[in-house]
Amino acid sequence: MNRVLNLWASLSTKPFGKWIFSRIICWKAPYFGTIRPCFEELRPGFSRVSMPNRRAVHNHIQTVHAIALCNLAEIGAGTMMEASLSKNMRWLPKGMNVRYLKKAETDVVAHCSAADIADGEPRESIVSVDIKDQHGATVCHADINMWVSPKKAKTVA
Questions:
Q1: 148 forms bridges with which residues in the sheet?
Q2: Is 136 left (phi over 0), alpha (psi -120 to 50) or beta?
Q3: What is the 3-state secondary structure (H, E, C) of 84-132?
Q4: How far apart are CA 90 and CA 45, in angstroms?
Q5: Do the domain assignments include residue 155?
Q6: Are 150 and 90 spatial neighbours (Cβ–Cβ below 8 Å)?
Q7: Which residue from 133, 134, 132 is spatially nearest to 142, judged by alpha carbons?
Q8: What's the mean per-residue pLDDT of the chain?
Q9: What distance lies between CA 120 and its chain's CA centroid?
């Protein structure tokens, strides 16, 4: 099991553990803290992460801003990738195709999944993200292209 999954396994069953795990992820990548994500589920190939509907993420029509939804998709997809790969592999987002399907007027939850994550040769992997409102309606769909490759060997000087 990799470091991210070990951390998740040790915290997620404890009181406030999911919240603590989410804060640790945001400490590592501070920008994501602006949306206050909370991981609900994490396993290789899948993550589920929520975001509260609050004024700080609203647009001019008092719904969840499109870029806040993109941030939710990216933190869910990126953490899922990190949890899915071995320590000798790395991932980088190459692009994101996003469709906004409905106004997000409630708390939202991102469901992130990828089927073709594995160690090996460099390749592109697509993470599919569906963001749903509290009524179960899909408000946003994103396909995030990830470049997966072995980490470069460290040189000793």
A1: 91, 123
A2: left
A3: HCCCCEEEEEEEEEEEECCCCCCCEEEEEECCCCCCCCCEEEEEEEEEE
A4: 15
A5: no
A6: yes
A7: 132
A8: 94
A9: 22
| CA dist 19 → 7, 24, 132, 139 (Å) | 12, 9, 20, 24
pLDDT digits (tens, 9 = 90+) for 88-121: 899 999 999 999 999 999 999 999 999 877 777 8
Q: Is residue 156 part of a domain?
A: no
Q: Which residues of the chain are modeled with pLDDT < 70?
A: 1, 157
Domain count, the chain: 1
Identify whether 114 is part of a domain. Answer: yes
Q: Which two tokens stand for residue 67?
A: 């870029």
2: tokens are 């990799």
Does 157 map to a domain? Answer: no
CATH number of the domain enclosing 30 = 3.10.129.10
Are the C-beta atoms of residues 91 and 78 closer than 8 Å to each other?
yes
Give the domain range for residue 54: 3-150
Write the CA distances from 157 to 137, 150, 154, integer angstroms: 55, 21, 10
Structure tokens at 147: 């470049």
